Amino acid sequence: NEPGAMDGSGSEESSDHEYYSCSEESGDELSSAQASSARPACLGERSPTNRNRGMSQFKKRQAALPQGLCEHSWRSAEAATFEVRGPTYLSDKKKIPAGACMLELANADFFRIGTSGPILRASDHGDLFPKMQRAKGDRRFFFIQNWIFPPYQAVIVGALDP
Question: Shortest CA distance to 51 belongs to which of 43, 60, 61?
Fold first, then answer.
């Protein structure tokens, strides 16, 4: 069993989370107080003292990879930073800034696949965003991307308010 792995039933095989960085910086240069004041806040800030007590596995994963602007987080990109083919592209090869996004990035969930295999029906799984939001009364249209790339899985959810 690997730390932080999630099996198809939704239970994490270990509550001990390890965090790895792909950056070349070690992070040892700043104290934790300096580091937290030097970076923008996240919506689900990690807290070592209470990160595992009384939380669902979903909330633990969200605390480990929060939405926001801090390190090891996820957020939407500005649509205008992308260029797309304009109406006259075939004749002048000019691209224009993209318009508004059709979907709101509602959630990004990344985890290690457990021993029972990947979660194939992310929309129906009780420990993933779509079903939890439906239980809270969210009736928006969800566009669910369920990426399985062993040993990891990512469930990315876009939402459209009709």
Answer: 60
